[in-house]
Amino acid sequence: MDLGWRVRPTSPDGLRSTLVSKLTDVPKRILIGRALRSDRLGETLLPKRVALPVFASDPLSSVAYAPGEVLLVLSIAGLSAYHFSPWIAAAVVVLMFTVVASYRQNVHAYPSGGGDYEVATTNLGPKAGLTVASALLVDYVLTVAVSISSGIENLGSAIPFVVENKVACAVGVIVLLTLMNLRGVRESGTLFAIPTYVFVAGVFLMIAWGAFRGVVLGDDMRAPTADFEIKPEHPGLAGFALVFLLLRAFSSGCAALTGVEAISNGVPAFRKPKSRNAATTLAMMGLLAVTMFCGIIGLAMATDVRMAENPAKDLIHDGVPLGPDYVQHPVISQVAEAVFGQGSLLFIVLAAATALVLFLAANTAYNGFPLLGSILAQDRYLPRQLHTRGDRLAFSNGIVLLAGAAGLLVWVYGADSTRLIQLYIVGVFVSFTLSQTGMVRHWNRLLATESDQAKRRHMIRSRAINAFGAFFTGLVLVVVLLTKFTHGAWVALLGMCIFYATMTAIRRHYDRVAEEIAAPETPSEDTARPSRVHSVVLVSKVHRPALRALAYAKLLRSDTLEALSVNVDAEETRALREEWERRGIAVPLKVLDSPYREVTRPVIEYVKSLRAQSPRDVVSVIIPEYVVGHWYEHLLHNQSALRLKGRLLFTPGVMVTSVPYQLESSEAAKLRARKRQDWAAPGSVRRGPAERAKDSSPHT
Fold first, then answer.
1. Which end of the chain has the least Cβ crowding within 10 Å, N or C?
2. Which of these, 536, 429, 440, 410, lies nearest to 150 by C-alpha position?
3. In this structure, are residues 623 and 641 in contact, taking their beta carbons and an 8 Å threshold?
């Protein structure tokens, strides 16, 4: 029996070296960079020019697929329904301006970064706040899945290999984005700013050049699908059926609003003055998104773009369906081809920028999800590991969790943006509606105590904006639920319910643990001194670790002290007894028989028997440990003591003490740890100030 339990070597400074760290430390530094000290957190704050692509890349890039979703739905009724698209675009514009104006009130009133979750929790209660949080978490996962899948489809129009392997390519892009975000918010934002601004400039240039060609030059610009006919699935829709179709098209166009709330969640990441900079960025984002969305819809009408939900059967050329080999390109690609010309430099640049910015649009979620997860973890609704910052001062655990969930969703849905987008939007409008309702209650509460007339007028104006926002977004939420429920929205609702139930259970667990471990006001069993202490030293043979453990046990001055071994091999046990007697060790040696060669069960039963004899006594089990320095040495030692310790931890009234013995190889690990100390102080990047302040709280 070898009871030398392997442990991680610890240097005098507290640095640890494990098998995992040895294998991953160097690649980790190469991929995500050198660790940053906690006091450098201020250096990662964002100016407006960087914050715009970081937090607004989702709504800005959604103009690449939102117009197409409108036309896809309208195509159900045939070409005759296309003339409704400008009116649908106008409704989306009104909604966008309403939401932007409403959220500008949010960032001024709640600049701490809680966003919709904080607003709903403060003004409507914890259940409403948890509902908002569940909706946003689902929406962030969908943002990554939809954006990357759409980007893959755009890129696939130029590179067939991407379409043929779109699931693998989408997962690869998720991994790449994850690594970039693990390097830190500022670095990822700077990297993402260039393609985002190239995309915005390209779309504005396309709109301006298209308008100039059409209005001034009178050119006949035609999309590559302009000569196709659409076979309507339900021709001649009228009355309620037509209204329902238009509402469904409107709800699909509302995809352009996803990600608007991310700025209100990310206010702490802005430079000072944080609220004003966030509000300005929000206004810039709304103006850019609305202009691009309307421009693309207008050019799609002018160039006769044709889209169909089932293009293989419903798109007809010269009386013949196009067939399964036809690849339907996005609206923005068709418009760019009509305006700039197939294969032109500007067409290629815009196509590349569109694909890239759709990939980077997921960055909105990569900033929103981890930050919201950190706030929820601080409130004990999610595991506290999500509240800690990683080496690059980003919330690394939240980033990895988001990547895993989005990757799973991409795999399940085959990276098909048309299928994924049906799950979209529900969550974001749930958060929109509850947030704006909460803001109305916020202003009502302030107006009840405010006497200054100038401030009251400002509050009344803000309340009116939020009230209209709550009404409008609530109406849209009903429309989305009615028109998209059977098309996949039920999956998003199910995801929200799962998140809600999980977070409720986690909070219940933390509350139960906090109550259980709270320090009592009166003396209890935990504070009372035990009657006696029985110390038991586990030994397998007489060697240096065992002798050190015995020497330490004698210093404890326990009421009783004995050495304990388990007889799994008669020869080894006989040799142990002889060596024990030869050395004259003044500690009784007790040997437990184990006919089935088990080690754990006999020790556990013996310790329990000691407790049963004297329930008020404490049993101290002392285990000698080997400290090794090379990863392969961990594989060469028996793990019986490790299993034994795990079982002993569940035995009431038993204290487990480890006595380490450093082998020579541990010195090499100690030297390596000291070298790492030169550039990364232990613990300096693992915990933020907020967490250190909470270290004494019960749930930690």
1. C
2. 410
3. yes
Q: Which two tokens stand for residue 485?
A: 């429920």
Q: Contact 77/241 with Cβ under 8 angstroms? A: no
d(CA 289, CA 364): 15
Collapsing DSSP states into helix, strand and coil, what is residue 158?
coil
Taking alpha carbons only, the member of 335, 402, 382 closest to residue 503 is 382
Q: Is 46 exposed, middle or buried (0-12, 13-18, 19+ CB in 10 A)?
A: buried
- Structure tokens given for 602: 């006999």
**DSSP characters for 421-442?**
TTTSSHHHHHHHHHHHHHHHHH
Q: Beta-carbon neighbour count of residue 467 at 10 Å?
A: 17
Mean pLDDT value across residues 100-114: 78
Q: What is the pLDDT of residues 352-379, one digit of tens each?
A: 888 788 777 777 788 778 888 888 888 8
pLDDT for residue 116: 81
Distance CA 79, CA 63 (A): 22
Residue 251 vs residues 68, 82, 288, 559: alpha-carbon distances, Å? 13, 16, 20, 76
Q: Which two tokens stand for residue 302?
A: 């002018």
Residues of the chain with pLDDT > 70: what percent?
Answer: 79
- Start-to-end CA distance of the chain, whole Å, equals 37
Query: Is residue 56 within 8 Å of residue 189, measured between CB atoms?
Result: no
Q: Could you tell me the CA-to-CA distances from 47 to 276, 371, 548, 682 in Å, in that order?
A: 12, 18, 59, 30
Q: What angle do CA 354, 355, 356 make, to 5 degrees?
A: 90
Return d(Cα 81, Cα 688) in angstroms, integer: 55
Strand partners, 619: 534, 654
Q: SS3 breakdown of the chain: % helix, strand, coil, rounded to 5?
A: 65, 5, 25
Q: What are phi and psi of 686, to 5 degrees?
A: -90, -20
40 DSSP 8-state letter: G
* Strands, sheet with 315-317, edge to edge from the N-terminal-most edge strand: 229-230, 315-317, 320-321
Instruction: Evaluate if pTM is beyond 0.70.
Output: no
Residue-wise pLDDT tens digits, 660-669: 877 776 666 6
- CA gyration radius, the chain: 32
C-alpha span between 333 and 336 (Å, rounded): 5
The 3 state secondary structure assigned to 550-585 is HHHHHHCCCCEEEEEEEECCHHHHHHHHHHHHHHCC
Can you read off the two tokens belonging to residue 683?
């613990």
**Helix 640-648 vs helix 600-613: angle between axes, to the nearest 10 degrees?**
30
Tell me the C-alpha distance between 279 and 211, whole Å. Answer: 31
Q: Which helix (H) or strand (E) holds 625?
A: strand 618-627
Cβ count near 165 (within 10 Å): 14
Q: Is 74 in contact with 249 (CB distance < 8 Å)? A: yes
Neighbours of 18 (CB within 10 A): 15
Pairwise CA distance, residues 150 & 143, whole Å = 10
Q: Domains of the chain, with CATH numbers?
A: 5-9+533-693 (3.40.50.620), 35-487 (1.20.1740.10)
